[in-house]
């Protein structure tokens, strides 16, 4: 009986070992970086197959022009075409230095930029559908910086159970160290506008074989299995995209 009671107590303790503290603030304030005021936007463009080459070329030209103009407080962090996952898709990740005011200023200027408006009109002829999300970056992830290639990128997207973002962040804050040994961690983000309780993890690998080896190595490290155990129940849906950088992408 004594042994049974001890076992029961141990089992009960394990059930509550990772209990998250009571909410004292919005999860956007608790999980995002305090030292920066960066806002991110991710765009998903589903392109007509016959237009992909022209779309990539036009996107390259427009993004280069925006980067040359210091009046626009935005920059493209990375642009990719999906290789495995949803086909004929372009993904763009933008950063607005200064948060929502920077986004508002950028949109105001673009709406009076005749060349950009002409680009949007021409681009609309090439698209089947498009959607975007506004994101914040997790405080414990490294900030995305340009890197040389060639690399492939994996965008892993998680739709979480509403109300579990802080628990997700608490677990990954401890676990991210297991996934930085090969410099594969590019950035981690969560949505603010668009589909809510969505997390995006962006990884870089030299190729698919390197991806497999890196992910297998994580399972050999004590503690990685615990992170998977506690985060899997938080996920409603998950998706993986393997992406190839566009020619002009700062992330190569």
UniProtKB/TrEMBL annotation:
One of its GO terms (cellular component) is mitochondrial matrix. The keyword Mitochondrion applies. It is found in: Mitochondrion matrix. Residues 153-250 form the NIPSNAP domain. GO terms for biological process: mitophagy. Keywords: Autophagy, Mitochondrion, Transit peptide. InterPro entries: Dimeric_a/b-barrel, NIPSNAP, NipSnap_domain. It comes from the Eukaryota. This is Nipsnap homolog 1 (C. elegans). It comes from Cyprinus carpio carpio. Protein involved in mitophagy. Accumulates on the mitochondria surface in response to mitochondrial depolarization and acts as a 'eat me' signal by recruiting proteins involved in selective autophagy. Gene3D superfamilies: 3.30.70.100. Pfam families: NIPSNAP. The keyword Lipid metabolism does not apply. Belongs to the NipSnap family.
């Amino acid at each position: 009986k004594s042994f049974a009671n001890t076992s029961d107590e141990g089992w009960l303790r394990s059930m509550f070992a990772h209990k998250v503290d009571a909410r004292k603030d919005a999860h956007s304030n608790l999980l995002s970086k305090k030292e920066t005021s960066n806002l991110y936007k991710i765009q998903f463009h589903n392109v007509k197959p016959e237009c992909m080459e022209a779309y990539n070329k036009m996107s390259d030209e427009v993004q280069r022009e925006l980067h040359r103009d210091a009046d626009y407080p935005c920059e493209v962090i990375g642009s990719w075409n999906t290789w495995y996952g949803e086909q004929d898709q372009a993904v763009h990740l933008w950063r607005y230095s200064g948060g929502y005011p920077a986004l508002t200023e950028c949109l105001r200027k673009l709406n009076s930029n005749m060349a950009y408006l002409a680009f949007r009109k021409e681009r609309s002829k090439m698209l089947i559908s498009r959607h975007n999300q506004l994101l914040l970056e997790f405080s414990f992830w490294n900030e995305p910086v340009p890197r040389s290639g060639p690399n492939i990128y994996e965008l892993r997207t998680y739709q979480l159970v509403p109300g579990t973002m802080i628990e997700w962040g608490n677990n990954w804050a401890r676990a991210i160290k297991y996934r930085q040994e090969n410099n594969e961690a590019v950035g981690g983000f969560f949505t603010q506008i668009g589909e809510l309780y969505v997390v995006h993890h962006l990884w870089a690998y030299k190729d698919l074989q390197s991806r497999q080896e890196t992910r297998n190595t994580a399972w050999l490290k004590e503690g990685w299995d615990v992170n998977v155990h506690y985060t899997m129940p938080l996920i409603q849906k998950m998706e993986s995209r393997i992406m190839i950088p566009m020619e002009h992408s700062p992330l190569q």
